[in-house]
Write a structure and sequence with these properties.
alpha+beta, three-stranded antiparallel β-sheet, 1 helix
Length: 59
């Protein structure tokens, strides 16, 4: 699994990140960010904090 920081087509907020599985399937996509540094910071936050996240079943 890997995180990718991507530059999209938006003129005002062109950067976003996605999580991609080892088979190439996209698992998650973020919101858009105006700065590449903001997208990278968000990725670092997810990596740091996601390990302790709980699953919440809302079905």
């Amino acid at each position: 699994m890997k995180f990718q920081i991507v530059k999209g087509k938006s003129a005002t907020q062109p950067f976003f990140w996605r999580i991609v599985a080892s088979n190439g399937q996209t698992l998650a996509v973020s919101e858009n960010y105006a700065a590449k540094a903001s997208a990278k910071s968000a990725v670092e936050s997810v990596i740091k904090n996601a390990g302790g996240a709980k699953i919440e079943d809302l079905t």
